[in-house]
Amino acid sequence: MVALEQALKARFYGMDKTVECMMLASLTAEPMVMIGPPGTAKSRLTRTFCDLLGLIGGEEADEGGQGARRDERYFEYLLTQFTEPSELFGYFDLAKLFDPVHREFVRDSSGMIQKAEVVFLDEVFNASSAILNALLTFMNERKFHDRGTVIDVPMKLLFAASNHPPREEGLGAVYDRFLLRSRVCNVSADAETLGDMMAVAWQATHAMLEETDTDFTDLLGRLDTYRLDVDRLTENGALRVEETDPLFHRLADLVTELRRRDLSEMSNRRLAKFAGVMVANALLRSAREAAEEARIGAADLKVILDYGLDAEDDSTVRKLTDHLMGT
Questions:
Q1: CA distance 205 to 208
Q2: Would the pTM of this model clear 0.85, i.e. be above it?
Q3: Which helix (H) or strand (E) holds 80?
């Protein structure tokens, strides 16, 4: 994961935090949404990630659009208010419906979202209520309800992008299911930053991805193994929550302030899920630092400030970060 993280950071200037969020989403299988103005490489980052995993080809990663799908393991779609469920889940096969011998009402699901292991939905909050209601079941249960039939889906990772947070009240349920939120912005307009960004962007546009010593094509399978290991270690008592850990005092202070300042309600569900994100962050952090052991600390609680807030307030977040880290 650290090698993949480094490869993506080298390709995308100023997106280190978003890349790190993507690594956490991959380890935990939690949905992630990138929020930022057009032109901030949200889509291209996702496609490059999939390119490194062997899900799409390099040219497809650059071109994007619906043609970026290479096989059924990857599904991408740009959502609008006019997108119909059939565009995601497949149309019904009219030939079979009107077959005089074997008349069937069958959906052609080849290449559709319910067949994919990695899903990317662009402008996700533009979708209609019908689409969003179907996505809720996908995100919560990894299941597809098709005319009374419940179908398990192989989706392992769900990434989404939007130019803005949801503005309509009815979108709150879907937004809440995106445990991880990464804000993406344009770089600052100073000479050094602009020069660095344009140099990296030129290389990314006109040169192939640099070869790495690591093969990422089996990463999805290895991520499954990681999550099974977490379950196994928990079952045998090797991995557990120490209720009396002093770190819970810092967590309590943080959650209290987030609620008081209306930055996030931090529901029980979100807090419980962030436990897995903290574990993943501690492991990644120890791997980056070549530490002998991984232990959750204040730096791992910070993922809530980095990726878990409902609203933006940079000044308040900086103050809360300083307090959390004891600086």
A1: 8
A2: yes
A3: none
249, two tokens: 């005092």
pLDDT in tens, the chain (327 residues): 999 999 999 999 999 999 999 999 999 999 999 999 999 999 999 999 999 999 987 656 655 555 544 578 999 999 999 998 889 988 876 666 666 766 676 777 888 999 999 999 999 999 988 888 888 888 888 988 887 788 899 999 999 999 999 888 778 888 999 999 999 999 999 999 999 999 999 988 887 766 677 889 999 999 999 999 999 999 999 999 999 999 999 999 999 999 999 999 999 999 999 999 999 999 999 999 988 888 899 999 999 999 999 998 999 999 999 999 986
Contact 15, 45 (CB under 8 A): yes
Pair type for strands 32-35 and 157-162: parallel
Q: With the C-alpha atoms ordered 226, 227, 233, 236, is the resulting torsion angle positive or negative?
A: negative
How far apart are alpha carbons 163 and 167 in whole angstroms? 11
Within 13 Å of residue 136, how many CA atoms lie on the same side as its CB? 13
Residue count of the chain, please give it.
Answer: 327
With both helix axes pointing from N to C terminus, report the angle between 42-52 and 2-11 in degrees, rounded to the nearest 10: 140
Adjacent-strand bridge partners of 161 = 34, 122
Helix-strand-coil split of the chain, %, nearest 5? 50, 10, 40
CB 157 within 8 A of CB 118: yes
Tokens (6 digits) for 65: 């659009």
